[in-house]
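We modelled each protein-ligand pair independently. The example shown here corresponds to the flavin-adenine dinucleotide entry; the chain sequence is given first, followed by the ligand as SMILES.
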Amino acid sequence: MSHLSSQGRIALLPDPLDEEQRTLQQSILTFAQRELGHDLDRRDHERDFPREDWRKCARLGLLGMPIPSAYGGLDVSATTIAAALEGLGYGCPDNGLIFALNAQMWACELPIVHFGTEEQKRHWLPGLCDGSLIAAHGMTEPESGSDAFALRTLATPREGGGWLLNGSKTFVTNAPDSDVFIVFATTDRSLGFAGLCAFVLERGTPGLEVGSPFSKMGLRTSHLGEVFLNDCEVPPESLLGEPGGGMAIFNTSMRWERSLILAAAVGTMRRQLERCIAYARERVQFGTPIGSFQAVSHPLAKMRLRLQTSHLMLYRIAALLDAGTATDLDAAMTKLHLSEALVKSSLDALQIHGGSGYVTESGLERDVRDALGSRIYSGTSEMQHNVIARHLGL
Ligand SMILES: Cc1cc2nc3c(=O)[nH]c(=O)nc-3n(C[C@H](O)[C@H](O)[C@H](O)COP(=O)(O)OP(=O)(O)OC[C@H]3O[C@@H](n4cnc5c(N)ncnc54)[C@H](O)[C@@H]3O)c2cc1C
């Protein structure tokens, strides 16, 4: 069929990948189909984090993709990472696992790579790459969500060195399972951005408590929870970067995260579309395949268009990241477009399947629940619109 590639998948052109990247993508796709997401209906229902799947992904090198090889990573380009994650999204139905992996890579590993001391890199990165450690990134607080820099967690310098942390974090992905926490605090709220600091903390640090996982709508195989800091005494070497350097650390993480956190969604949307096309051809109502009704074929056409634009935007920003020229505007546009496309296409896929899309074992209702979180995490869609508007001078 003209719209299908030689592997029988929807063809997306231009293809930005070289032969090596295509081979890697296909091998990750095959690995994911074979190894990941077993027993997913039960896991999703019971909010069961797939620790063994996490380890399998780590063994393949996925968690170390953006990390220099000196610290146990693969040190591959953003384009290669996008290709790998797209393959993962196509092959792995467990969106919660994929989300948890992304949360660790962009907002926990990369800040250590970009801002950590040599000692911090050697101490944390090998375990984060090999899957023996899980990390969480705590910025959001009960009183500061979109207005992230209005945080209240206080970092007070201690006599003789080190810091005393007091405050709490909420909606922290991976927190209930984490061994390592990157948390943001202010030394003095009146200093504004200049008072922001980031710390790397170890589970078990006296004064650091982790709450139970929240029950939530989607991404239920990844855990989301609270982190409490009560007179939490941390040594000087827990500080990440410079005192007052927290804003640069957060902004760097968000640029990478917003750029690539939905790379897997391109694979998910491609899988959904192929499945819907097959269903629209085979499901007969009123004596004809439902795909012959425009009310069914037009949503499929829109899914195709969203897949194409998402693919173009993903590989555009990956190229910009590789060239070192990606901006916050590029990241906001990518995250906004891919998340909204994923939500709409997941809804279309369910609707095209009628009642069978609504039942759990189809996986399509789970995709809708999982997709909706993407309009909120890593900055809501409204906040991404604000970034774009600001770049228009508004
Ligand atoms: C699945 C998931 C995972 C998450 N993981 C993490 C994590 O690992 N670490 C972490 O620190 N946080 C995490 N978060 C928290 C997330 O970053 C916040 O939920 C998000 O930034 C929004 O903050 P809020 O929930 O307090 O909503 P609010 O900021 O209170 O916003 C409520 C509503 O008002 C709108 N709004 C607010 N301000 C404006 C404005 N200026 N202009 C237009 N609209 C506005 C918002 O868009 C939203 O619709 C996660 C959230 C989810 C859902």
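The CA atoms of residues 105 and 250 lie 14 Å apart.
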